[in-house]
Specification:
By secondary structure, this protein is of the alpha+beta class. It is 40% helix and 19% strand.
């Protein structure tokens, strides 16, 4: 697994990864209508390049395929963190988060924050195993 900076050629694959991740993994905690509203068939590709370039975005790649991505805005906001379901449970999100934290530290950011989905919260999985 290699973590690398986002490139413009990643746009299509990352939109597809996002849609697949939300519609597959998000179904654990959200109804179908909610996941379709979150990740619709028609995602505006014009807004995504600006969003991904607004801060720092990294891609986890394996065998030439995007396994996940993470995006940090200039103010410390973790905007997006998505992993393709095929790569779930392999530490992809942890690797991406370590890369984001290193970047934030090198930029002098002392606070990171996000609005995490139910699926992304550790308590979501902990409740299943209790």
């Amino acid at each position: 697994m290699r973590i690398r900076p986002y490139a413009a050629a990643d746009l299509g694959p990352l939109i597809a990864l996002f849609r697949t991740s939300v519609r597959t993994l998000g179904r654990r905690d959200y109804i179908l209508d909610q996941t379709l509203a979150w990740a619709p068939d028609a995602i505006d590709p014009d807004g995504w390049p600006a969003r991904l370039a607004a801060g720092s975005t990294w891609v986890a790649a394996s065998g030439g395929r995007a396994a996940g991505f993470i995006s940090l805005e200039w103010d410390g906001h973790l905007d997006m963190l998505y992993v393709h379901p095929d790569f779930g449970g392999r530490g992809v999100a942890s690797m991406l988060l370590r890369r984001l934290e290193a970047s934030a530290k090198s930029r002098g950011l002392i606070r990171l924050f996000t609005e995490a989905s139910i699926t992304a919260r550790p308590s979501s999985r902990a409740a299943d195993s209790a």
